[in-house]
Write a structure and sequence with these properties.
The complex is a heterodimer of chains A (878) and B (110). With 878 residues, chain A is of the alpha+beta class. Chain A is built from 24 helices and 22 strands. The longest helix of chain A has 45 residues. Chain A starts with a helix and ends with a helix. The N terminus of chain A is likely disordered. Chain B is of the alpha+beta class and 110 residues long. Chain B has one domain: Arc Repressor Mutant, subunit A. Chain B has 4 helices and 3 strands, in the order H-E-H-H-E-E-H. In chain B, a hairpin with a 5-residue loop joins strand 2 and strand 3. In chain B, helix 1 packs across helix 3 and helix 1 packs across helix 4. Chain B is globular. The two termini of chain B are 23 Å apart. The N terminus of chain B is likely disordered. Classes of the chains: A alpha+beta (878), B alpha+beta (110). At the A-B interface, helix 2 and helix 4 of A face helix 2, helix 3 and strand 3 of B.
């Protein structure tokens, strides 16, 4: 019946109406028959019936229709009252929408990039294994694995359900007449099995297909299949040209889930074991799946014991040096490069959220205080507490809903921006989207806020007995003093949070500035780089011919118009440290008798001129240095190794043991300025030693540096066309001025600084508004008192002081709490700071000054209004 | 509590409605007339309060309703007792009698 009345409300309503009208007509008729004239009869019938609408309402209630109609009425009423208080509603919606937007964005990024579990069967059992070099200079750096470690684990690791090896590679793909670079993976045949992934189409690899004599096969990713082949199912069996001229047969399509591991990757091919590949030298990653109830720690112990066994039985027996990587640790999850920054940002967003919520809560509380009179009247008229609560809840639910919708729109825009930015920082990351988990969380939080906001103020007022009292004058004053006390607490909390946030943002901002002011040590704006990493070309050039190729390229670049100087370097700049150029050296002359680690860069003689790196002592390279091996070290060499004298003129040797007798040491002929070619923040990394790139260096991977004053875009275009002339299979990548690369490197820090600063700025604004609103309310409710004070002779100054005192009292207390919190919290920021201490006094002083001026501004306007109170008028108003 | 007299009246009205329907089914106005007739016009209640009472009784399953045609040929909703309603009327009549006797007894003594 209740259901029926909900769904067929109108029908039921009409029936009831009809029934009651029939009654009235019958009664009228009856009255007429009793001798009344028609109009009297009708009036008399209505009178004896009692209130027509009242009983209709009562019937509805009996039916259970009431809740719904009441809710409709509440919503209508709320709309009306929210519309009437537009300022309040707008303030709440804007604040809440910003809070929800900011948190949803950062949370989505954090979840999507870092926390989200991998989309595979039992992802918690799936683990990536890294080898950690014992003597690693930076400490705890992961180095690669290879085919032989994979085989060893596969055979001997009893605690593993499976092992697979994968290696990120780039290959040249030929499409039509043009060549382009494409990322992919070499994998062992059990790779997909280990992940628990089935082919979308076709098949994956058989275990014997790692041997090329069985033919060359390739599996495409779903994205690549859809983009390059329009999802054509007949693609299976077709051939593609990888590696210039090598034909691979497409055997299957991998589903999109594997792209969460290798987003850039377009293809998978079977693992190719390199000639003399070492245990750790394959440049590959090991993936393992743990057996059912094996803990990570147990598995780690097990794998370590395998590693020790290998060392004792094989490596040690062959006298291999222990300086090689030794398996030390098991990485339980893939640490996303942005994990730390994102966690930090989420903390910032959360602080902002708290400040915002405190503000909104304060607004609601004050409004409830304002509405105290209205609520009391409604209460006295018979609206019980449940009814009042419901109408306030409806108001807060409406506001939260609107704010949540706007907040989601903001978050959507935010994610769009972040996606563009993440693509630069981490091309392997999947573009972010709203995740269901995050959405549910945010909606749940929004709902609880709505509940809290609608429920708590009333509850507090009710608990304090403020709505039940009937003496109106006493009630309104005690109600306001009660809500005021609470508001005070909220404002203090708000200032404290905003303060801590601003300290954090300020420290980040100063770090960013400090990074920007680091001298890169080279001329960033005039030097253009481009990388040729093209191992697949090697088979087509004999060893002697590759040297000639490099020369032709260098010569070709020199011939370009407006190019002043050209050099080549095997070192890939602006790439995270992976230890590949790290070498041990010994030195004679200066006291380096134990092996030390440095970074070695192989460059052509004109390197220092082209890059604009100053030579501080000694000389630069000349053409004769190609034959004799001499070194130039950078200025950090002496500092890093605590040398008392200049290393100029000393002899060094690459390796851990002195050269065999008869072999020469190499001389240090110059000391250059430190060039921070990896990252401006890496100026304290290993010292760099430069030596001349040998003509027959067996790698076609090198970077071209060009010095030119022409617009970079034009130069790059010329570079490309020149390369096509030389060999159409050469692909130039990572092109741009060095300044572009620096800017890209700084994006990460810039993004965090900008976001953290905007959270802090908004929080500051909110706490300014919080103090202002509190004082303004104070002044308006104390008009009479102020009037009396002025009337009995209080000077304007003393009134002004009184109000300012109020504002500063709150701000000061909040500031103190915030200060204590910051002293504790900034330690978590330390890893993000650059050249600034977590307890940097200047930062603290400037933020305190900012807050004092904010308190001043926020108190001044209300104070001025208080001073302007006319005693006569104020007293009359009451 | 201010609600008790209301509850008492409601209870009484419910009982009167059941009693009015004892012999035949009637529409709302008919029930009203029957009660007046039985009370010999001594009882003065708002006629409108009959309708919420009817809905409550119907929800409890003590009476049922059906649209029919009145003597004057008009559409009207007719109510009749259910078996449950008939039983309920018996027990409630007993209860009411006992209750009112007790109350009268006390009031007379005072």
């Amino acid at each position: 019946m209740a259901l029926r009345s909900l769904f067929k409300k109108d029908v039921v309503e009409a029936e009831l109406d009809k029934e009651m009208r029939f009654h009235l007509e019958m009664q009228t008729q009856y009255n007429i028959e009793k001798g009344m004239d028609p109009s009297t009869a009708k009036r008399e019938a209505l009178r004896s019936f009692g209130g027509f609408d009242k009983f209709k309402e009562e019937s509805r209630e009996a039916w259970g229709v009431r809740v719904v109609t009441d809710l409709m009425r509440d919503i209508r009423y709320s709309f009306h009252s929210l519309w009437k208080g537009k300022g309040f509603s707008l303030a709440v919606i804007v604040t809440l929408a910003l809070c929800i937007g900011a948190n949803t964005t950062v949370l989505s990024a954090l979840y999507g990039l870092v926390l989200k579990p991998l989309p595979f069967e039992n992802p918690d059992r799936l683990v990536q294994v890294f080898n950690i070099g014992k003597n690693n200079p930076i400490g705890g750096h992961k180095s690669g694995s290879g085919w032989f470690q994979y085989l060893d684990f596969k055979k001997h690791a009893d605690l593993l359900e499976g092992v697979a090896v994968a290696k990120s590679i780039t290959r040249i793909i030929k499409r039509g007449d043009s060549y382009s670079k494409s990322a992919g993976n070499e994998i062992s045949a059990d790779f997909f099995d280990l992940l628990g992934v089935k082919p979308l189409l076709g098949r994956f690899f058989e275990s014997d297909e790692i041997y090329p004599m069985h033919g060359q096969f390739v599996v495409l990713t779903q994205t690549s299949w859809e983009n390059d082949y329009n999802g054509d199912p007949d693609v299976i069996g077709k051939e593609i040209h990888l590696d210039v001229g090598n034909r691979y047969t497409i055997v299957g399509i991998a589903p999109r889930s594997v792209e969460s591991l290798y987003y850039e990757g377009e293809f998978f091919i079977p693992y190719r074991v390199r000639p003399n590949e070492s245990r750790y030298g394959g440049g590959a990653n090991l993936w393992v799946r743990l057996k059912g109830n094996v803990s990570h720690a147990a598995c780690l112990d097990h794998l370590r014991s395998l590693e020790r066994r290998w060392y004792q039985e094989e490596a040690g027996a062959r006298g291999r040096s222990h300086a090689d990587a030794v398996f030390e640790s098991l990485e339980l999850d893939m640490d996303h490069p942005l994990k730390e920054s994102l966690t930090l940002l989420e903390a910032g967003a959360l602080f902002f959220f708290l400040v915002g919520c405190l503000n909104i809560f304060n607004l609601f509380l004050r409004r409830a205080g304002h509405k105290c009179h209205e609520l009391s009247i409604r209460n006295a008229l018979g609206a019980n507490k449940a009814l009042l609560r419901r109408s306030l809840l409806v108001e807060s639910a409406l506001l939260t809903m609107v704010a949540a919708i706007i907040g989601f729109c903001l978050a959507w825009g935010g994610l769009y921006l972040i996606n563009g930015y993440v693509r630069i920082l981490d091309p392997s990351a999947i573009p972010l989207d709203f995740d269901l988990e995050v959405l549910v969380l945010v909606i749940a939080i929004s709902c609880s806020i709505a509940l809290l906001l609608g429920f708590l103020p009333l509850e507090l007022l009710w608990r304090a007995g403020l709505l039940q009292q009937l003496d109106s004058s006493q009630r309104s004053s005690s109600a306001s003093s009660f809500t005021r006390k609470l508001s005070d607490v909220l404002v203090v909390g708000q200032v404290a949070f905003a303060f801590a946030l601003l300290i954090g943002a300020m420290l980040l901002f100063r770090s960013f500035n400090n990074v920007l002011s680091v001298d890169p040590g080279f001329e960033a704006t005039r030097v253009i780089k481009g990388r040729i990493d093209d191992q697949s070309l090697l088979p087509f050039y004999k060893r002697s011919a590759t040297a000639a190729l490099k020369q032709r390229i260098a010569q070709g670049m020199r011939e370009l118009p407006g190019v002043e100087s050209v050099c080549l370097s095997q070192y890939e700049s602006f790439k995270p440290y992976n230890g590949e150029n790290t070498r041990y050296i010994l030195s004679r002359g200066v006291s380096l008798d134990t092996p030390r680690m440095v970074e070695r860069h192989l460059v052509t003689p004109d390197y220092f001129d082209t890059m604009g790196i100053r030579i501080l002592e000694g000389r630069r390279f000349n053409l004769n240095d190609i034959k004799d091996s001499v070194y130039i070290v950078d200025e950090s060499f002496a500092r890093h190794f605590d040398l008392d004298e200049s290393p100029l003129g000393s002899d060094i040797h690459l390796g851990q043991r002195p050269p065999q007798s008869g072999k020469p040491w190499s001389r240090i002929v110059g000391v250059s300025k430190r060039a921070n070619l990896r990252d401006l923040e890496q100026r304290d990394g290993l010292p760099v030693i430069y030596t001349v790139l040998p003509r027959d260096y067996p790698s076609n991977n090198f970077t071209i540096f060009l010095r030119s004053s022409r617009p970079p875009g034009d130069v790059v275009r010329d570079m490309r066309s020149k390369l096509r002339e030389i060999d159409a299979r050469l692909v130039l990548s990572k092109v741009g001025t060095l300044q572009n690369s620096i800017d890209e490197m700084l994006l990460d820090r810039k993004g965090i600084t900008v976001l953290a600063s905007s959270f802090a700025g908004l929080s500051l604004l909110l706490s300014l508004l919080g103090i202002y609103a509190l004082l303004a309310y104070d002044v308006s409710s104390r008009r009479r008192e102020i009037g009396v004070r002025s009337a009995i002779g209080a000077s304007r100054i003393s009134v002004l002081k009184m109000i300012l005192h109020q504002g500063f009292g709150k701000a000061g207390l909040g500031l103190g709490i915030g200060l204590l919190a910051s002293l504790y919290l900034t330690r978590f920021l330390e890893s993000m700071l650059f050249d600034v201490a977590a307890l940097d006094p200047w930062t603290y002083i400037s933020v305190i000054l900012i807050f004092i001026s904010v308190a001043l501004v926020a108190s001044y306007l209300p104070a001025r209004r208080a001073v302007g109170v006319d005693p006569l008028e104020a007293l009359r108003a009451e | 509590m201010a609600e008790t007299p209301n509850d008492l009246l409601k209870g009484a009205l419910n009982l009167l409605v059941l009693r009015a329907l004892r012999d035949e089914s009637r529409h709302g106005w008919g029930i009203q007339q029957r009660i007046n007739q039985l009370a010999q016009d001594t009882l003065s209640i708002n006629q409108g309060s009959l309708y919420p009472a009817l809905i409550r009784l119907e929800k409890k399953g003590l009476i049922k309703s059906k649209w029919g045609t009145s003597e004057a040929g008009r559409q009207a909703k007719y109510y009749s007792l259910t078996a449950k309603g008939r039983r309920q009327m018996g027990t409630e009549t007993e209860l009411w009698k006992q209750f009112s006797t007790t109350v009268n007894f006390i009031l007379d003594k005072a």
